[in-house]
Design brief:
Blueprint: H1 5-17, H2 39-53, H3 57-70, H4 101-114, H5 121-135, H6 168-177, H7 182-188, E1 196-198, H8 203-207, H9 215-224, E2 232-234, H10 246-252, H11 259-262, H12 268-279, H13 281-295, H14 325-331, H15 335-349, H16 352-357, H17 383-397, H18 401-414, H19 444-460, H20 467-481, H21 514-523, H22 528-534, E3 535-537, H23 558-564, E4 565-567, E5 572-574, H24 597-606, E6 614-616, H25 628-634, H26 641-644, H27 650-661, H28 663-677
Parallel strand pairs: 3-4
Antiparallel strand pairs: 1-2, 5-6
């Protein structure tokens, strides 16, 4: 069923609220990991294709990125064409010999076909610059993205660009004015290790007798550059198409091409820096990557600033008011930008409610240093897309399979942490988690979804994506499929090597009361509120160590209890997990007095004594991710003891009422709770492994 623009917009607002807290709030590596997951791959493939035909164009793209950032910030203004009334930056004298604009245009055309109105031209240029460096032998680095495109490009502004004839003092002042240090300047100058230069950029050193230029090298250059010529020479004569540190060795020999290069050894301090970079290739590569990332953040436009051009050559001012909605939202990566963007879009659309929704974005999720959103944005950019496609295929065949995957993720995280141990098969000497009683109702098809996604990922990015991350992505995509809010999944988990059925005793049974649930969730670093939230998922799985099914609900403690409980809004449960509430409940009452009598009568019909039938955990909407689970609790229609117990204290009952009346708040809190739960006991770095096959340890 198609969703209205306002509903989609609303969902994105809540999802992006989860990205509110970042060390660098404006730009973020993996920015397009969900909105356009193949973005960086498309750029990389096109750059590689062009460089096979014209190996020198990569140096132009690198220089183009520098020139773009130094003039009006990294906003893609260098890409705009001149008009009758204005000469643009690209037509200024200093940029007249730049090539590669057509490369950016071709990439943009392909990205518009794949993700219309999402990826900025400024980001394309930053990606292309990085990929050019890698092509020439440089080390890959993550490019923080989320830049917006500028609307102004004036040739006269290029006067700020550093001339090759500047001395050390002038260069240093210029770089500092852009927020870059002298060390950054020396490191970024290393880009001159690739590419060519025109004679007129350094001929003053040849025919005016520069004593800092090696005489033999000067004589050679004169043969290449006779007076009045404008020929080209390689800036690094020995390895002109290799991104190495030979440039610095050349400077130490007084064989630098430009005054602005040779001046780097004019003081003891800068000469020491040059020597260090000349001595260590690895040091140069690391420092260059850090410096270019820093440069790439100069005066960026983000949030609702600027635009996302449809054509990098043209100002996109005449676009229809709504066409860039997703781009606007995707660009607002921190709370202040989001508020501005949503307010603008809400009033533009006449949706007052949407403007109010921003007020809910007051509880941002912190980012764990071990996991990061967009972890595979360069190493396997299609990872999340592949998982999503495999899941969608499975859901067409079995609409309930997503509830199993959501529950499976819960069970995985509560036992030994989120390490994919639930996916391992039993062996002759060991019974694995998946064969423990609480997990025996998982459909084999759910495990096959993970297997199929892993098989495809191994073909595309062998040994890169962990099974634990695949499961986390599949759980998120299941939530979205059922109508929940999309949320970015921090990734980088490694796979565990141990899986024991006995460890599933850590799973909270559906018979637990509030105190027991809260204690268990707190032991996992989750609050009572999270417990309440996760329970609303309606996916019975987490709560019972006995017979749960794909249509059951999940966890409970306070923050967790409220949020976690929300997972029970989808899925089914087997009768034994709640039959104690229907028959022989106590000496005083045959049926649990906290259970609605009419609902109890209905359940007895579906669950006669000793039956193992299934019932929907949320009868009104068993396959919709909504808040009816909480409304059921208010009417004493919670299926499990662990559900109805959420009404046993004023604080937890208050949270249940909030969620029952506010679906946006619930979905926002649920997403936040899932992200937090997904960090329990994770293995990262060199811990664990990346399994080749999710069912077997390597």
């Amino acid at each position: 069923m198609a969703l209205g623009g306002g509903v989609v917009l609303l969902a994105f607002v809540v999802a992006l609220c989860l990205c509110a807290t970042r060390a660098e709030p404006q730009l973020e590596a993996g920015f397009y990991s969900y909105s356009c997951p193949a973005a960086e791959l498309i750029v990389k493939e096109e750059v590689e294709k062009v460089l096979q035909d014209d190996p020198g164009v990569g140096a132009d793209l690198l220089r183009m990125h520098f020139h773009d950032c130094f003039v009006r910030g990294c906003d893609g203004s260098i890409l705009l064409n001149s008009t009758k009334g204005n000469t643009a930056e690209k037509d200024a004298q200093i940029n007249a010999d730049l090539e590669g604009f057509d490369v950016i245009d071709t990439i943009k055309e392909k990205l518009e076909a794949a993700c219309k109105g999402v990826v900025s031209c400024a980001d394309i240029l930053a990606f292309a610059s990085r990929d050019s460096i890698v092509h020439y032998g440089g080390v890959p680095y993550k490019v923080p993205s989320g830049r917006r495109d500028g609307r102004v490009s004036i040739a006269a502004d290029t006067s700020i660009l550093p001339s090759p004839k500047l001395g050390l003092s002038e260069l240093t002042k210029l770089f500092i004015s852009k927020g870059l240090s002298q060390n950054d300047m020396i490191t970024l100058s290393g880009a001159h290790t690739v590419g060519i230069a025109h004679c007129d950029a350094f001929s003053n050193r040849l025919y005016n007798g520069d004593p800092t230029l090696d005489p033999n090298y000067a004589a050679y250059l004169k043969t290449q550059c006779p007076p009045g010529s404008n020929n080209t020479v390689s800036m690094d004569p020995k390895t002109p198409r290799k991104f190495d540190n030979l440039y610095y060795r050349v400077i130490l020999k007084n064989q630098a091409l430009f005054t602005s290069d040779q001046t780097l050894v004019s003081t003891q301090g800068t000469a020491t820096q040059v020597k260090r970079l000349a001595e260590s290739y690895n040091r140069f590569q690391k420092k260059f990557a850090d410096a270019i990332v820093k440069m790439g953040a100069i005066e960026v436009l983000t949030g609702s600033e600027g635009e996302i051009r449809a054509d990098c050559k043209l100002q996109h001012s005449n676009r229809a008011p709504h066409t860039d909605a997703m781009g606007d939202l995707a660009a607002a990566k921190h709370t202040s930008d989001l508020i501005k963007t949503v307010r603008e879009m809400a009033f533009r659309r006449g949706e007052m409610l949407l403007a109010i929704v921003v007020a809910l974005c007051l509880s941002p999720i912190g980012t764990d240093a071990q996991l990061s959103v967009g972890f595979y944005s360069y190493s396997c950019p299609k990872a999340e897309v592949i998982v999503k496609k495999e899941l969608e295929k499975a859901l067409k065949a079995d609409a309930g399979i997503g509830a199993d995957l959501l529950r499976m993720h819960f069970h995985d995280c509560f036992v030994r942490g989120c390490d994919g141990s639930i996916l391992l098969d039993s062996t002759k000497k060991n019974t694995a988690e998946k064969d423990a009683i609480p997990n025996q109702t998982f459909e084999e098809e759910a495990f096959q979804v993970i297997d199929k996604a892993k098989k495809k990922l191994e073909k595309v990015c062998k040994g890169t994506v962990s099974c634990a991350d695949i499961l986390a992505f599949a759980a998120r995509d299941s939530v979205v499929h059922y109508g929940g809010t999309f949320y970015p999944v921090p990734a980088g988990r490694r796979d565990g090597k141990i899986s024991r059925s006995s460890d599933t005793s850590d799973l909270p049974p559906p018979t637990f009361n509030l105190t027991q649930l809260t204690k268990m969730f707190v032991s996992k670093g989750l609050s009572q509120d999270i417990m309440i939230t996760l329970s609303g998922n309606k996916s019975e799985a987490i709560l019972s160590p006995y017979l749960w099914s794909r249509h059951s609900k999940a966890m409970h403690p306070e923050e967790i209890a409220t949020s976690s409980a929300g997972s029970h809004t989808i899925g089914v449960a087997h009768c034994p997990t709640f039959s104690n509430r229907l028959y022989n409940f106590s000496r005083k009452a045959s049926t649990d007095p906290t259970l609605n009598p009419k609902y109890a009568g209905q359940l007895k019909k579906e669950c006669p004594p000793r039956s193992n039938n299934e019932v929907d955990m949320d009868p009104p909407s068993p396959l919709t991710f909504d808040t009816s689970y909480y409304r059921n609790l208010l009417d004493n229609r919670g299926l499990f003891t662990s559900d109805q117990t959420l009404m046993s204290t004023p604080a937890t009952a208050g949270r249940v009422r909030q969620f029952a009346s506010n679906s946006v708040l619930f979905k926002q809190k649920f997403a936040a709770a899932m992200v937090k739960m997904g960090k329990i006991g994770v293995l990262t770095g060199k811990q664990g492994e990346i399994r080749s096959y999710c069912r077997v340890v390597n």
